[in-house]
Structures are given as C-alpha cells and as structure tokens.
Amino acid sequence: MSDYISRGNLQVDPALAAFLEDRVLAPLGHDPARFWQGFSDLVHAYAPRNHDLLAKREKLQSQIDAWHTERRGQPHDAEGYAAFLTEIGYLVPEPGDFTIGTQNVDPEIATMAGPQLVVPILNARFLLNAANARWGSLYDAFYGTDVLDAPPARPGGYDEDRGAAVIAQARAFLDEALPLKSGSWADLTRDGVTTGGIPIKDESQYVGQTEQGRLFVNNGLHIEVQWDPDSAVGKTDRAGISDVVIESALTTIADCEDSVAAVDAEDKLLAYTNWLGVIRGDLQESFDKGGKTLTRALKGDKTYTDTNGAAQSLPGRSLLFVRNVGHLMTNPAILLEDGSEIPEGIMDAVFTSAISAQDVKGLGTYGNSRVGSIYIVKPKMHGPEECSFTNDLFNAVEDLLELPRHTIKVGVMDEERRTSANLAACIHAVRDRIVFINTGFLDRTGDEIHTSMQAGPMIRKGAMKGSAWLKAYEARNVGIGLKHGLSGRAQIGKGMWAAPDLMGQMMVEKIGHLRAGANTAWVPSPTAATLHAIHYHREDVFEIQQGLGDIASLSDLLTIPLAEGTNWSEAEVREELDNNAQGLLGYVVRWIDAGVGCSKVPDINDVGLMEDRATLRISSQHMANWLLHGVCSRDQVMDSLKRMAAKVDAQNAGDPTYEPMTGNWDGVAFKAACDLVFKGVEQPSGYTEPLLHQWRLVRKAN
Predict the structure, then answer these.
(1) Is 323 annotated as a binding residue?
(2) Domain coordinates of the chain in residue numbers?
(3) Looking at the predicted structure, is the pLDDT value of residue 1 above 60?
(4) Would you say 128 and 285 are in contact if contact means Cβ atoms under 8 Å apart?
(5) In a 3-state reduction of DSSP, which class is residue 392?
(6) Residue 678, annotated ligand binder?
(7) Domain 570-701: CATH architecture, name and number where available
(8) 280 closest CA partner among 294, 265, 268, 297
(9) Does the annotation list 440 as a binding residue?
(10) Residue 695, pLDDT score
C-alpha cells in the first residue's frame, strides 16, 4: 500500500484523492476530512451487503445447475421448473398495484420521445460529439449515408446531383412532419419564403425565428429550417433553404461500464475527469483532421424569438446520464483496511454523484438537468434485492453529499434473467427514483445461456432472435413499465442498432421500436440519432403507449432456448464457432492490447459493428455451452479461434500499432479470448469482466 494515501479508513490512489478534493469537493464547499470519513463509513456499511448479494447469485446459480443436471435427458418440466424457481427465491411475489412516484424529471426523459446515444466516457472527443448531438443536420445525414436511393457522392467537393437528391428527401420529410396548407415544400420559392412566411397547415407548429431560419415543432421535437441563399447548397435551392436541422439525441449515456476498458486508478481518474468536464462545461479535446488541428468543446443553447417577439432558448446539448458499473467488480483505485479492493459500483456512485452535484448547485457553464436531478444508469442488477440495495446506496450517497432525497435518479437495465422475471418488483424497489428501463439482446441472451447452462445445448445464436423467451422479454418490459406508470415520467427504451454504416436498413427496421412502445432507443452515432429522430416525427409514441396493455406470460419468458433433437452438421458447427470466435477475437484484441472498450469492429462478413463487452458475453457463453454438451470439441474451438485470429489480423492490417495474434498464441489478447471460452462455465453469471480486467492489467504491466 506504499503508493496509497490514507483517507478515513481507506487507502486511496493519490491522484484520485487530489482530484476529488481539489476539483470536486472544493467547489462544493465540502470539508475533505469529513467527506472521506463519511465515504469510508458508507463503504464499510455497503461493501458487505454487496458481497452477500453476489454470494446469493452464486447460490441460486448452483441450485439451478443442480436441478438441470439431475434431470438431464428428461423432457423439460416447465411447471415444475417455475415452482422450483419460486421455492429457491429466484422468483418472488408480484407487488400489489402501484405507480412510480418519481418527481423532478427533465422533459427529455419524461415527456419527450427521441433517440439515445451511449458513449465511452474515456474518449473525450466521442463524449463531446455525443453531448453536442442534440441537434443534427438532416442534409449531412442524408448526404453521407446509404439512406438515399441515389448514387454516392462524387469525390472532390460538393456533388450537386447528390445534393439535389438530399434536398428532395428533406422536402419529403418536411411535407410529412410540417404539411403546408396547400402544395409541397418543394414548390416554395425564394420570394415566397422571404415575403410571406411559410403557410403551415397547423399554425401551432410554428415556434419562432432563429438567426438562421425558422423553428417548428412536431410530436414535441423541433425542426429548424435554415436559409442561406449564398451557401453552396442554398444557391442551388429554389427556396434558398441551406439545411434542415432537427432535434436528434435527446439523451446520452456517458458510459463507465461495458464500452470502456477501465481497470485501475489511472483509468477511473480519466473517466471521472471527463465526466466533470461535461458537467462543468469546460471539457475540450484537440485533434488533427486533414492536416489541421481542431478543438472540440460543448455547444451553447439554441436561441430564437418566439411568436410574441420574446427571446427564448432551447438546450443545445443532449441531456446526460452516467452509467455506473454493476455490483460485480472491484477496483484497486481504493483499498479497505484489509487490502481488499473497493466495490467499483460503490465508488462510481459516490464519485459520479459528487461530480454531478456541481450541476445541482449550478456551478457549470451550461447546466445538465434543469430540474436539479442526477441521472445514473445502473446495469447488470439481478432481481429486486439488488435494486433495493441500489436504492439504499443512493440514499446514503445523497446523505453524504447533503442532497435532497431522490435527487439521484436511476435507470434500471433489464438485461439479466432474474430482473426480467421479477421486473415489477424491481421497479417497485426504486419506485421513487426510477426514470428508465430498457432491454438489450446481447447481455440478456448471455445471461439466458449461462443461467440454463446445464440444461442442454442452446439453439444457434442467430436463432435466438426468433425465440419465445426473447419475444416475451421485449413485450413484458414495455407492458410492465406502462402498467406501473412510466409513460410520461420515465423512459422505456430499446437496444442498440449496431451497424453504423447500414443506415438505410436502420430506417426500415428501427421504427419497430417505437411501434412496440419505446419512447427511446439506442443508436451508434450522432448521424444515426438524426436519422432515427425522423421515426419520432412519423409516430407519436405516447399515443401508441396508450393502446398497449397486455403483458406477455412469465411462462413464455422462462422458456429455455434448447436445441432439443437438433443434430447439426459438422459444417454448421464450424460456421457457428467461426462466427462466435471472430467476433470474440475482434473485440478482445482491442480491449486487451489497446484499452479500447467500444469501437466499430468488422464482423465475419466484414460489416462494421459497434461492439462492446456484451458481445463477448453472448459469444463466449454460447461456445462454452456447446463445448460443455459435446456439440463441439476443444480442438474444434481452438481451430476456429486460430483461423479467426488470422482473419482478425487481416482486418487490422492497416493499423500500424496492431500486434498480430497469429503465431503469438501466448500473447495476452489471444490467451484472454481462450479463457473467456474455456473458463466460461465458471465465470460469475457468464460475465467477461473478471478475465478481461485480469489480462488487461497484465498487458498494462508489460
């Protein structure tokens, strides 16, 4: 502990202690000694509870494993299985009728519907891009993606043919969102715009005048039509319209969890420093682009003059959540007296809330929450007991920081099977601070496989999307959320569109999330947010939610996706292993060697997908399951891993910093990937974090 300093009854990394004392506590006026003692008391009160909750996960899993093992070879007894889960406390009684009581929620979460970004907090440039993605150019989004049914832009400057297709598409959008009293937006002329205004059919949609054009609203989202007849685009437009700028990413999650590789005090300090930067409004990042040094900073608000001639403004930035880590991991940034590491989720709760308290106190340049709330997404909780623990922990953090009760709001990620099966009880446990629930295919499928690991071999990964449990899971999340009053008070979200280059396909498919009742959904980039925002102009989600009410059955949710009676060919087994191994290696090598927790990784067909740690959980657990039940052999798995290592090496051949895995089978990245598969059955809940952290620390030490 020689590199640590004493604070309260804790041993703290010196740089982390100095950051908290000088840059966080001092502006808040907190006495450091009193704070550290309170923090120490909090840790010592909650770390044992955290440990007991993890022990209960392991106990339940061992009981479920034993149940399946004893019945191996017998037909699955669904009724007996549900009774068994109830007997061991995996399933708990449903709470009585209740409605959530959350107060002081910003409209971006409660009463507006729109896209949501998730961004790795360690990357300042990405974080700034996401925070600034509240407003996006529809022209840019159309021009640079495959959404248009038109030839791609010719190189060498502005392509007027491509531009004409963009303008036509944008006019079609305006006709849809802001219909005129007669005719089309395509018929407007320059003279008509400047002298007579815009003859909107519904005059209440007109909000006011901005410096660059006119502001409208549809389904609660704003649209700015900009005029500049002298611009490259405006001079080719008969009305002189130079752009259509729309509200895009209403909310952004700054992620400390699955999209980052944060394993020690150095990494956590960077995470907290970047969070402080966006909360205070002074985060900047300089980078080289085209031989020029550019500096990115947060954007200011959008100002306008309303129809009564009064000056008004709209937020210029996405409303920010911060995603803490779950209950599982510890971190060496802070040690307890016995030398054990602090539970990382407890550390995150205190540090990110203390930083966010500066926003509550109005110390930032712009401000995040306009109602004085702090928004924390809490992932990977298993059931209502763990949600209750988080609620109590946030109470204690509020007391430590002298904040009013329920200042800290919580987003509950419905990504673990025990949470899905007890979702109403989970919501009830945090009913006065909940602002968000969502679903996620990758983590949830990983936990589905691990929970029933001993039951038998699972269906192929691609077939999971058509399984009964998944359909029930997606529907129950919305239905239970609506039943308990989340509509108009909280977000009901859906998962990520992972292919940032396939925007045309996204525009066809992702509107389904709105039609299923989700008032937000994850997208992989600011451009994707702008395009996905079009869906929220086409569908009134809150109206859709009023027509939903049925809750899918628990028995469907508990249907295990077993491949009973399936006899795959050797080619099919190889294909499935190759798919899993390539995705696993493509991500692991970046995580371990480069410390990059989220990036666009080519899949086995060379399609770039935004991958994070959840990708590893589903792939490694699926391979471990097939290996356990003899669908494949260890030699077959290793053959796939080695062949796919060569493919991943080839996909990264253009990166001068990349270290090939082929032939370097003792390299830490390849060994980490092997461990994730061959030790997959024994990993807690099938999580990848313990092994990834272990091997990343080895890599950093080297």
Answers:
(1) yes
(2) 570-701
(3) no
(4) yes
(5) helix
(6) no
(7) Up-down Bundle (1.20)
(8) 297
(9) yes
(10) 98
Q: Locate 606 and state its tokens.
A: 């060379």
Separation CA 529–CA 527 (nearest Å) = 5
Higher pLDDT among residues 395 and 287, named by residue: 395
Residue 524: strand, helix, or coil = coil
Which sign, positive or negative, has the C-alpha torsion 506, 508, 509, 512?
positive
Q: What are the CA-CA distances from residue 614 to residues 251, 377, 619 (Å)? A: 21, 16, 9
Check whether 12 is labelled as a binding-site residue. no
Q: Where are the alpha helices (DSSP H) in 71-188?
A: 78-87, 107-110, 124-131, 138-143, 160-177
Q: Which run of H or E residues covers position 616?
A: helix 613-628
Over residues 243-258, mean pLDDT: 98
Give the DSSP letter string of 562-586.
B-TT----HHHHHHHHHHHHHHHHH
pLDDT at 195 over 50: no
Angstrom distance (rounded) from CA 574 to CA 638: 11
82: confidence class by pLDDT, cuts 50, 70, 90? very high
CB 410 within 8 A of CB 324: no
Q: What is the DSSP string of 256-316?
A: SSTT----SHHHHHHHHHHHHHHHHT--EEEEEETTEEEEEE---PEEEEETTS-EEEE--
* 342 bridge partner residues: 331
What span, in angstroms and rounded, lies between the C-alpha atoms of 340 and 196?
Answer: 72
Say if CB 103 and CB 406 are below 8 A apart.
Answer: yes
What single-letter amino acid sits at 673? A
Catalytic positions are 323, 612
| Residue pair 618/442 in contact by the 8 Å Cβ criterion | yes
| Banded pLDDT at 36 (limits 50, 70, 90) | very high
Could you report how far apart the first and last alpha carbons of the chain are, in Å?
A: 21
Q: What is the distance between the alpha carbons of residues 478 and 494, in angstroms, rounded to a whole number? A: 9
Sorted by sequence, the CB contacts under 8 Å of residue 687 that are 6+ apart come out as 328, 380, 617
Q: How far are the Cα atoms of 61, 263, 311, 325, 451 from residue 682, in angstroms, in the given order?
A: 11, 21, 61, 21, 11
Alpha-carbon dihedral 57, 59, 61, 67, rounded to 10 degrees: -150
Taking the C-alpha atoms of residue 132 and residue 296, their distance in angstroms, rounded to an integer, is: 10
Task: Give the pLDDT of residue 452.
Answer: 98
The yes-or-no verdict on residue 463 having pLDDT over 60 is yes
- The CA-CA-CA angle for residues 537, 542, 543, to 5°, reads 90
> Tokens standing for 567?
């006899």
Q: Cite the DSSP H helix spans in 301-455.
A: 344-360, 383-401, 417-421, 423-429, 441-451
125 assigned binding-site residue: yes
- Which residues face 436 on adjacent strands? 411, 491
Mean pLDDT of 192-217: 87
What pLDDT digit, counting tens, does each position of 270-299 carry? 999 999 999 999 999 998 888 899 999 999
Please state, in angstroms and rounded to a whole number, the distance separating the CA atoms of residues 686 and 625.
11
How far out from the chain centre does Cα 627 lie?
A: 31
Q: What percent of the chain has pLDDT over 90?
A: 95
Q: 373 among the known binding-site residues?
A: no
Predicted TM-score of the model (pTM): 0.97
524 is in an annotated binding site: yes
Q: Is 601 left (phi over 0), alpha (psi -120 to 50) or beta?
A: beta
